[in-house]
Amino acid sequence: MVEWTEQERNIITSIFGNMNYDDIGPKSLVRCLIVYPWCQRYFGAFGNLYNAEAIKTNPNIAKHGITVLHGLDRALKNMDNIKATYAELSVLHSEKLHVDPDNFKLLSDCLTIEIAAKMGKDFKPETQAAFQKFLAVVVSALGRQYH
């Protein structure tokens, strides 16, 4: 079980409380698919992903980015039991979708970059530490079925 300080909980809650899901979600997934093009193989049914502009303007990618970000709400509401919270999603991504679990970390890095860009000078080292700890727990939980 992960131990959370009150400061970490407050930081994470504040980040999500101030987040524009419709902006950050798509930007994070778009960044991931452009920077790490091998991740595109999981999105073959999403239409044209042939270049950066096509990815940026793809409505299916935008929608899924929002879905992924809202999926983190589950972790936020269940910070003391994230692994159990994501057990079904771990099975889905492992056994049905066959997603390489390393991609969860890549997407979390892209999300961190987008949050940092949006927060600017308010993205202090303590903020980054708490946010990346949170994402690391989520990534571990999503990859649990693979072990």
Verbal overview:
- α1 packs across α8 and α2 (21-35) packs across α4 (59-77).
- The longest helix is centred in the middle third of the chain and has 19 residues, at 59-77.
- The radius of gyration is 15 Å and the shape is globular.
- It starts with 5 loop residues before the first helix and ends in a 5-residue tail after the last helix.
- Helices cover 69% and strands 0% of the residues.
- The chain is built from 8 helices and no strands.
- It is mostly helical.
Query: What is the radius of gyration computed over CA atoms, rounded to a whole number of angstroms?
Result: 15 Å
Task: Look at the structure and give the mean pLDDT.
Answer: 89
Helix content: 55-70%
Shape: globular
- How many separate helices? 8
Strand content: under 5%
**Uncertain spans, ≥5 residues at pLDDT below 50?**
none
Biggest sheet: strands, sense, closure?
none
Q: Structural class, from secondary structure content?
A: mainly alpha
Amino-to-carboxy terminus distance: 17 Å
Secondary-structure element pattern, one letter each? HHHHHHHH
Question: How many distinct beta strands?
Answer: 0
